[in-house]
Amino acid sequence: MALMSGTDVAREITEQTTKRASEFEQRTGRKPCLAAVLVGEDPASVTYVKMKRNRSAKAGIESRFVHLPEQTTTEQLVAEITKLSEDPGVDGILLQHPVPKHIDERAAFEAIAPSKDVDGVTMHSFAAMAFSEPGFASATPGGIMRLLEAYEVDLKGKHAVVVGRSPILGKPVAMLMLAKDATVTICHSKTENLDQIVRTADIVVAAVGKPKFITAIKPGAVVIDAGYNEGNVGDVDFEQLADSASLITPVPGGVGPMTIALLLEQTVSAATRRADLVDVSEVVG
């Protein structure tokens, strides 16, 4: 068993992003700008946004913060995001999710201009991932792909099982892995004979949101734990599976740092592209 350190890989990505942000500022006279939108006072969301803003500042990215009250309506949130989409001083937009239950989250996501969707949450970005067209990857799936690349995991011809089907994690990571010639099976918490299916996988991505949900794998499999539950527990039973896996991500220190690194990298790419400085030919995945 070997650990896949997202912390180490993310540090390398962020160092390069910081250099690119500095070059952008030298050429344009301003820093790349990431606007973060938070609705309500959910403690975890407040913490996440604060962390992302701090990381942005360290990378030389301006951070704009829009904090809306819990009772904000869908229409009000869409209006605020539309303003940011139309603001030439904003390069990337992050809507911290989940939003309060009374808000139509999909409508809010779709108010983000595709050119500023650095978190990869819009239908436009999903289509770009599915068709291997230029665009922005969903930050966590994109981070997972970069982590696999950093550890030289060749997906071609391999069987990848994704446990989870959310539109910003399970489904997009399946599309990105398919684009790398993996054979992909998408499962979820209601899949029958799930353990049997997971045991056939060369690569397992756990993204179901249930602590220690994955308890059995094929010996030698690569295990990516994209879950984060109370008590720093992932979706994989790490203690039970660590010795069986050839590579496995820890929680924390695995997928989490990669998500933020990709968000910052894509913000600088968005700024560079919008400023028309260079032809940024990044293809998602």
What does the model show?
The chain is an alpha/beta fold and 285 residues long. Helices cover 41% and strands 14% of the residues. The radius of gyration is 19 Å and the shape is globular. Helix 1 runs parallel beside helix 10 (255-274) and helix 6 (139-150) crosses helix 10 (255-274). It has helices at 6-28, 43-58, 74-86, 105-110, 123-131, 139-150, 170-179, 194-198, 238-241, 255-274; strands spanning 2-3, 33-39, 62-68, 92-95, 159-163, 183-187, 203-206, 222-225, 247-248. It folds into two domains: 28-115, 3-Layer(aba) Sandwich (Rossmann fold); 139-256, Rossmann fold, CATH 3.40.50. Residues 279-285 have low confidence and may be disordered. The strands form two sheets. It has a six-stranded parallel sheet. The protein is built from ten helices and nine strands. 46% of the residues are buried.
Chain-averaged pLDDT = 95
The coarse overall form would be globular
Low-confidence stretches: 279-285
Our Rg estimate from Cα atoms comes to: 19 Å
Q: In terms of quaternary structure, what is this?
A: single chain
Number of domains: 2
Question: Proportion of β residues?
Answer: 5-15%
The CATH H-level superfamily of the largest domain is NAD(P)-binding Rossmann-like Domain
The major β-sheet equals:
6 strands, parallel
The assigned structural class equals alpha/beta
The CATH topology assignment of the largest domain is Rossmann fold
Helix content: 40-55%
What's the architecture of the largest domain, going by CATH? Answer: 3-Layer(aba) Sandwich
Distance between the termini: 26 Å
Written as H for each helix and E for each strand, in order along the chain, the element string is EHEHEHEHHHEHEHEEHEH
What is the CATH C level class of the largest domain, in words?
Alpha Beta
Q: How many beta-strand elements?
A: 9
Strands in their spatial order, largest beta sheet? 1-9-8-7-5-6
Pfam families: THF_DHG_CYH, THF_DHG_CYH_C
GO molecular function: methenyltetrahydrofolate cyclohydrolase activity; methylenetetrahydrofolate dehydrogenase (NADP+) activity
EC number: 1.5.1.5, 3.5.4.9
Subunit structure: Homodimer.
